[in-house]
# Entry
Amino acid sequence: MTKLSELAFCKVSIHDKSKDAVLGYFNKTIFVNNHRHFLTMEGMQVGFGIRAFIICPKCKKRCNVLYTVNPYYLNGDGLFGKVLACRKCWNFNYLSQQTTKTKWEYELHKMLYYGMLVDSKFRLNNGFATQFPTKHNNISWHNYMKYYRQYKHYQDIAGNKWMKQIPASLKRYIKR
# Structure
């Protein structure tokens, strides 16, 4: 899959998609940027209720969310709202699917996430060597320690990936 940015796409919100859900297939009309779309939906029995899935207009598979092209990335108003499709049809994936054995961007992203849960102004100024923020009064010790353990977990993974790259870097440096 290609690594396209999720910023280049807009989620199409379909409010109350299971409000009128019935078992089997049913149709629903939505408007995106004044373009009318006739969506086929499928109602399935789950527990004591009915769960509605959207049938992707392109691949005809069940999905929960459809996407359209973000108008910010277009020259004009060309495709915005005209084309709806699921993640697989647009060929883009989640950030966690882009992890590798050598690059630590995902770990830095997770470290930033857990740091910002404690302090909203937290930034990774020193990369993965940045210290976890101190506890504030508005967070319990239980949650603080939970976020701290997760932060340290991803910090250790990023550090290990960095340490594994040092021998290769030294070999290139010595050959010069």
